[in-house]
Amino acid sequence: MGHSLRLHPTRRTFIASVGGAIAAFGGASVLFRHAFAARVPEGQALKPGDFSWNPERSPSGPVAIVVSIPDQRVTVYRGGQVIALSTCSTGKPGHETPTGTFAILEKAKVHASSTYSGAPMPNMERLTWSGVALHAGELPGYPASHGCVRLPRAFSELLYTVTHIGTTVTITSAHVAPPAVRHDGVVLAKYHPSENEAAAAALKSKTLPAPHHADNKTPPVAVIVSRADKRIVVVEHDRTIAEGKAFIADPNKPLGSHVFVLAGHGTYGQGLVWHVISHNVTGGPVTGADDALIERISGEPPVIQAMKARMHPGMVLVTTDEPITAKTRSAPGFSIITGDSG
């Protein structure tokens, strides 16, 4: 697969479930190997089928997931802190797992593959409608799936309880930088300081999207900025809300691949708090996102207003140097595919 980008809104289905695994294990730092569990010594390496779960490190905040194909590892961030690490198994040769940034499109505790003879996919969290998902499965210690990301069963149960439709999953075959915390109200527009404070104050009454559909009164929102197309697209889970021209200063200079997750409002004078995951699909060092990068981007007023009106904790802003293409924008979800593991 060559380098490309797809904005792929799709029909959303959500099967709600209440997971009891967190209650069973509490906030303890636990290592699971197959059916056995033990405390995790600090810095202990994970063997195939192992994972650690440390939710007490960040009890609340937006969740972002990073899958490293070379390491066969999954890292879960909440509130900008690592709360879990897990082994995984990605796509084998000929069925490579695509790299890029994805939003969880569908969740189902019980699911069977429509492509592979009804193969069970417990705790399925769909990333693309072409068949890529997170789910429980066998972990031999190397890439062995047909493109999905297989997880330890117990880990998949715990992960299922902290994600929501729209949670971002970054899959990479290169380097990822840990989240950086930004305190900044400047987002694609030259806000006046009073607007920054107003935007921060408005977030105080807003919450994250809920893990379970029955409780989910906050729709997931993603904003995608493409330098190649000079376009901004605002996607709410059931439709494209707005799109228009992006005005990018120094347009020949890359923006880079960054995922900004809005954590909420900061203390007085800090405006909005963003956690930023930067990655590089081509290898080499990663350049983090700073104020200068954000200040290079602005957009047409209707698009910016649509984005500002829907800002809530967990909202995602994705920057890319790749073009946006779409077959349809009449239904929810997006995927930004930058290549495959080959």
Compose a concise summary of this entry.
This protein is mainly β and 342 residues long. The protein is built from five helices and 21 strands.
Q: Which keywords apply here?
A:
342 residues, disordered N terminus, L,D-transpeptidase catalytic domain-like, 8-stranded mixed β-sheet, 9-stranded mixed β-sheet, 21 strands, mainly beta
Report on the architecture of this protein:
The chain has 342 residues and is mainly beta. It folds into 2 domains: 21-174, L,D-transpeptidase catalytic domain-like, CATH 2.40.440; 178-340, L,D-transpeptidase catalytic domain-like (Beta Barrel). Helices cover 12% and strands 34% of the residues. The strands form 3 sheets. A 9-stranded mixed beta sheet has the order 2-1-3-6-5-4-12-7-21, with helices on one face. β14 and β15 form a beta hairpin. The longest helix is centred in the middle third of the chain and has 11 residues, at 193-203. The model is unreliable at 1-39 and 327-332 (pLDDT under 50).
